[in-house]
Amino acid sequence: SQELEQSPQSLIVQEGKNLTINCTSSKTLYGLYWYKQKYGEGLIFLMMLQKGGEEKSHEKITAKLDEKKQQSSLHITASQPSHAGIYLCGADYYNQGGKLIFGQGTELSVKP
Amino acid sequence: NAGVTQTPKFRILKIGQSMTLQCTQDMNHNYMYWYRQDPGMGLKLIYYSVGAGITDKGEVPNGYNVSRSTTEDFPLRLELAAPSQTSVYFCASRPPRTSGFNEQFFGPGTRLTVL
Predict the structure, then answer these.
(1) What distance in Å separates the CA atoms of residue A50 and residue A54, rounded to the nearest whole number?
(2) Of B55, B28, B57, nearest to B44 (Cα)?
(3) Residue pLDDT, tens place only, A21-64
(4) Burial of A105 (0-12, 13-18, 19+ CB in 10 A)
(5) Which of B56, B102, B106 shows the shortest C-beta gap to A43?
């Protein structure tokens, strides 16, 4: 969706390196979801951010929502092969009746 | 709780056939969603519902229909299947924002091939 842009589309990193995935919205967010998907499998909930400036962590994964609530970044520290997969951000907007849309996804490969 | 369940897991359809993908949740969530995921892509919202009797179009509704007669069930109907509808379909549900619980729960997906 053009309302929600995710970058990069794909990423290859060496094991142990840090990386960042970005999610940018054209409108102010009510909330921003981050999910991980292993190839051919279902979606794993990572975290949801709601307040401007909020930061949450899940193991070695940290996500932050900017003060304007239009951009979120997901940062992985010391990447491992187990981090490989597709990362998806999902947007919940004000005054849209519960509609929840997702970005195009970022495919992450971690080389041992 | 079983969470969000979807049936079938896999299905092959011929062009022009119809079918219904079933989705049930046992968490008493008012919001329910249908998404499709094409290979290497993100999720596209097909339809969603904010409660029994209320449905609304998402980003890619053409070729699909939904109904929501109960809180638990949200079936997705494909009429006149086309090869462009080959995809993995995910159903999801979540509680209202005021509940304080923020997770959107997903079903395991239905892999549909139209030949």
Answers:
(1) 7
(2) B57
(3) 999 999 999 999 999 998 888 899 999 999 999 999 988 999 99
(4) buried
(5) B106
